[in-house]
Amino acid sequence: MSYLDRIRECNEHDLARFRPLVVGGAGIGWVRPDMAAHLARHADVFAVEDSRVTLDPSLTDFASRSAAIARALADLRDGGAISGWRGELYPVKTAFAAKPLFQMERAAVPRLGVRAYGVHMNGYVRRGGAIEMWIARRSRTKPTFPGMLDNMVAGGQPIGIGLADNLVKECGEEAGIPPALARRAVPVGAISYIKEVDEGLKPDVQFCFDLELPADFVPRPVDGEIESFHLMPLDEVARLVAQTREFKFNCNLVAIDFLMRHGFISPEDPDYLEIALGLHRAAPT
Q1: Using CA atoms, how far apart are residues 148 and 140, in angstroms rounded to an integer?
Q2: Does 159 share its domain with 267?
Q3: In this structure, is residue 283 part of a structural domain?
Q4: Coil, strand or helix: which one is 125?
Q5: Is 43 within 8 Å of 34 (Cβ atoms)?
Q6: What is the Cα–Cα distance from 223 to 225, expressed in whole angstroms?
Q7: Which residue of 85, 202, 206, 284 is surrounded by the most CB atoms within 10 Å?
Q8: What's residue 283's pLDDT?
Q9: How far apart are CA 79 and CA 8, in angstroms?
Q10: Residue 242 CB contacts under 8 Å (≥ 6 apart), including other chains
Q11: 3-state SS class at 165
Q12: What's the confidence (pLDDT) of residue 284?
């Protein structure tokens, strides 16, 4: 196994299995036939054709679209077509900087193949010139990827909060990092991938941050989503990423990005360019 294996696993998908979801003439998602059949029950919201799914053109603004989609998705939840309801709203956009077309329940985002965004933070310390990373282990009772390894702090990007404020919030909730310390995190880029999952399609983007922590700082689980934290040398992080599947799939990419930026994966690596390009996959069109 290798870093490229982790990248390929994050980009396994077959768009022939999906129909484009179109809103106001813009393609914003991908829907599998089983979900399209559920959406067809709501003809006042979705027009389902063999080649695509479109939002009713009479829904022309953020409020009307959001309200109509919320009613349809709640009905699908009550009928068992959508599980894992989170009660958290995500913006749906044509691009990150674009104005949201509507908002929708987080659990339904992959069902409609809509691009979601998130924040992931690498927490690390320097000891004797060497870098060690704080790695989180997800709670074994968590409904998604229980017990797997994770970046020190990570979370989805809901509507109505900026990236920096969201990261500070997640730092406090997941690792007990005080706001003043969390605000020292440095934005270092983003990774993207397109992965087909049981629920649908995830053409997602994760904004990456690095936070160098004091050597005596010890994170602590706060909200129950994380079971424990472990301080690891970079060679152990690299081994776990390249040779195992112990990390949650997208967290592998965030760790690989860190390893590249800090020179652990060097340009002499024969896979260097393929790794670098593989961390940034465009959304399907």
Answers
A1: 8
A2: yes
A3: no
A4: strand
A5: no
A6: 6
A7: 206
A8: 63
A9: 34
A10: 1, 2, 3, 5, 6
A11: helix
A12: 61
Mean pLDDT per 10-residue run, the chain (285 residues)? 94 96 95 96 95 95 97 96 94 96 97 97 94 96 91 96 97 97 98 96 97 96 93 97 97 98 95 96 65
Length of the chain (residues):
285
Which of 94, 112, 130 is where one domain is finished? 112
Q: Which of 110, 88, 113, 92 is nearest to 101 (CA)?
A: 92
Q: Is residue 192 part of a domain?
A: yes
| Euclidean distance between CA atoms 30 and 48, whole angstroms | 12
Of 108, 58, 65, 107, residue with least CA distance to 86: 107
Distant-in-sequence, close-in-space partners of 50: CB < 8 Å, separation ≥ 6: 19
- How far is 124 from 102, CA to CA, in rounded Å? 37
User: Do 104 and 174 belong together in one domain?
Assistant: no
Q: According to the model, what pLDDT value does residue 129 have?
A: 86
Note whether 57 and 107 are same-domain residues.
yes
Q: Cα–Cα–Cα angle for 199, 253, 203, nearest 5°?
A: 35
Q: Which residue has the tokens 């994170």?
A: 219
Structure tokens at 270: 């024969």
Q: Are residues 176 and 263 in the same domain?
A: yes
Pairing of strands 200-212, 117-127: parallel
Q: What single-letter DSSP state applies at residue 247?
A: B
Residue range(s) defining the domain that contains residue 59: 19-112
* Of 151, 148, 156, the residue nearest 124 (C-alpha): 151
Query: Based on the domain organization, do 7 and 49 belong to the same domain?
Result: no
218 class by beta-carbon count within 10 Å (0-12 exposed, 13-18 middle, 19+ buried)? exposed
CA dist., res. 234 & res. 74, Å (int): 44
Tokens of 282: 């465009």
DSSP, collapsed to helix, strand or coil, labels residue 103 as strand
